Amino acid sequence: MSNGNYFIGIAGNIGVGKTTMTKKLARDLGWEPYFESVIDNPYLEDFYNDMKRWSFNLQVYFLSHRYKSHKKMTNLPKSTIQDRTIYEDVEIFARNLYKMDKMSQRDWNNYKELFGIMVDELQAPDLIIYLKASVDTLLTRIKQRSRDFERQVDPEYLYRLNISYDKWIKKEKQRNPVLVIDTNDFNIFNDRIEYKNIIDKIHEYCPEK
After folding, report:
1. Which helix (H) or strand (E) element contains residue 34?
2. Taking a C-beta distance cutoff of 8 angstroms, is the pair 125, 7 a contact?
């Protein structure tokens, strides 16, 4: 980063464990965490009840929130970790909603143009950590955290998102550093050796100064 610090983005599907990973890495590395706006999101519950009606509103809200967070992070005098990147908004979620006919062509074009204007002003992360898991694992974790608005999550929707993530990460690896972590059998609190390997990998991409 231009201010001499690092910026890591944690990417991954719904329920994969991004927030937990962000909190633990931020604590152990001494970095500043930034989280996705979920609980206070005014559109999320409506979206899960009627995706087609609320898809554009929801995606613009997420885009606005992540843009402000991204700008703020790059100006902080310390290293930062972000729970979900701004790039996932257009490459994964909005694109899928459009392909599923849950977002109109007009709204999709409008959204892409707005995203393009915003992202041109942003600095890319020093590293993207992609957390991946099977649909069954995601559903189990979503059930465990018991958010009312997520009870209607369609397994097919998660499956489509997983496919989009794999395609996006394959392209992203050609542009920016990416660390892929399979979380299906990984417990961040119990699997200490694997977690230490993740920390070591982060230090390879972001050497301590």
Report:
1. strand 32-34
2. yes
- Give the whole-angstrom CA distance, residue 54 versus residue 59: 9
Single out the residue of 118, 95, 108 nearest to residue 168, CA to CA: 95
Its sign, for the CA torsion 104, 107, 112, 113, is: positive
**How far lies 68's CA from each of 14, 112, 160, in Å?**
22, 17, 28
Q: How crowded is residue 140: how many other Cβ atoms within 10 Å of its Cβ?
A: 12
Where do the domains of the chain lie? 7-205
- The three-class DSSP label of residue 169 is helix
Supply the residues annotated as catalytic.
83
CB distance 149 to 38 below 8 Å: no
Q: Which CATH architecture has domain 7-205?
A: 3-Layer(aba) Sandwich (3.40)
Give 145-187 pLDDT, tens digit per residue.
877 666 778 899 999 999 999 999 999 999 889 999 999 999 9
Q: How many residues make up the chain in this entry?
A: 209
Q: Largest Cα–Cα distance of the chain, in whole Å? A: 49
Does the predicted model carry a pTM greater than 0.85?
Answer: yes
Position of tokens 């993740």? 198
Dihedral sign, CA of 9, 125, 135, 54? positive
